[in-house]
Design brief:
alpha+beta, Glutaredoxin, SH3 type barrels, 2 domains, four-stranded antiparallel sheet, 8 strands, Thioredoxin-like_sf
């Protein structure tokens, strides 16, 4: 299995990129070449759909979608084989057209061509810049643009996985029941009314991009993003003023990211009480 994405994909790259690889360590040359192709795309921020020819890895991952892609490419006669009829790996397809292996992909990047191809502003076969994102056929060489897995393994799903991974990594060193270090995390006390804090505070966390808040989750939450509350600090043995930055689910339960504590449970939070000051 390949590691999860580490760089947030950019939505400006609209083209579907499918990369055929193998995660089988015994095929070291193919494995390393596939990793280089993936690293190039990931560093660039281009979402790509990985089709792993390691059958065991497919069964443990997105097997149905990957098998569908392999079947379609095989039926269309697009899979490339070597002299001994061995499958060449990696293989890179953009909007259904074969653009080569990892070296060819790097060549497109080095020549300054990959950017417009990924943005659907140039043809991957003839490099014509007359292409627009809504075209299904190149106006110069007439090659057809067709996604291999339309609606599957999408950038929206990749972004969701990226945000979930980012939150999990952020929480690794946090213990929900231990607020040691609260003092270091404390921001200046908030004394204004809750309406002074826009809801957008809960929708963005620096370094992790936009974190969408589910409407149903908001309705069931006791406290809302931007709301001024008080959090019980075990280390201080008292309530401290706080603001709800975000609401999310962790292990099936609603937790609150406060400006002084991440992942706080509702039983340690109460509404803001001016009389307690």
């Amino acid at each position: 299995m390949y590691a999860p994405i580490r760089v947030q994909p950019e939505t400006k790259y609209e083209a579907e990129v499918v990369v055929l690889v193998t995660s089988l360590g015994a095929k070291r040359t193919e494995f390393n070449a596939g990793k280089r192709a993936r690293d190039l795309l990931e560093i660039k921020g281009a979402h790509h759909k990985i089709i792993d020819f390691n059958r065991d890895a497919r069964q443990a991952g997105t097997g149905d979608a990957e098998n569908k892609a392999i079947a379609k490419l095989n039926d269309d006669g697009k899979l490339k084989s070597g002299a001994n009829n061995d499958l060449i790996l990696p293989q890179v397809f953009i909007d259904g057209q074969y653009v080569g292996n990892g070296t060819d992909l790097q060549g497109l990047e080095d020549d300054g061509l990959l950017e417009n191809i990924l943005m659907r502003r140039a043809c991957m076969c003839c490099n014509s810049s007359r292409r627009t994102p809504d075209m299904t056929q190149c106006p110069a060489c007439w090659v057809k643009f067709e996604e291999i897995l339309p609606g599957e393994m999408t950038i929206s799903q990749a972004l969701q996985e990226f945000h979930e991974l980012a939150l999990d990594e952020y929480d690794e060193d946090e213990d929900d029941d231990d607020d040691e270090g609260d003092e270091d995390m404390m921001l200046p006390a908030v004394t204004g009314m809750a309406t002074e804090f826009p809801e957008e505070r809960g929708a963005h966390r620096e370094g992790y991009g936009e974190l969408p808040v589910d409407a149903a989750l908001l309705r069931s939450a006791a406290f809302q993003p931007g709301e001024q509350v008080q959090y019980w600090s075990d280390s201080k043995n008292r309530y401290v003023d706080a603001v709800v930055d975000n609401i999310r689910l962790k292990e099936g339960k609603i937790v609150y990211d406060l400006n002084c504590k991440r992942g706080a449970h509702a039983d340690k939070i109460r509404g803001y009480d001016p009389a307690s000051e």
